[in-house]
Model the fold of this input.
Amino acid sequence: MPELQEDFHDLIQQVRSGSEDAAWELVGQFGESIRRAVRRALNDRLRSKFDSVDFVQIVWNSLFRLRDRLDRFDRPEELVAYLVTMARNKVGMEVRRQMQTEKRNIAREKSLDEMNARNGAELPARQPPPIDIAIARERWNRMLDGQPAQYRRIIQLRLQGYTNQGIADLLKVDERTVRRFLKRLFLTTTT
Done:
């Protein structure tokens, strides 16, 4: 046990002197304790807005800014208790800020589904506006105007998702005929 404490003191002294490797070792040894404390303290409604890692980084930032005060920890347990308390305080401050202030009270937030259920309204479906539907109908009618019945059938089948080969098989025509007609139709409707 004394050997572990001596290792801990050496690690703390290296961190205090600015060793980046020692700082990473400290993070590796005690980071999981901070993350668990943050996860326990973080309100469910805030989990969609904040990640636990954000708070863990804030705790480490605070600790490393005051690295000259690290010598006050004699045992690893004291450091863990300090880090866990700091994590709870940081999360608690953010919880109060996000849930108890007028400006950012997320308890007042409602999902669109909740609001619509309460008002009896439904969200509009994702449909094109009426003007787009009218334009599409006009183009459709223009494409079909003056076309023989077999060509109209090619257009209808293509719009239903059939491939050129599938249309040719259904209508018992050559696939090249279907392809040429659709190409010509496309060129005349886009100009």
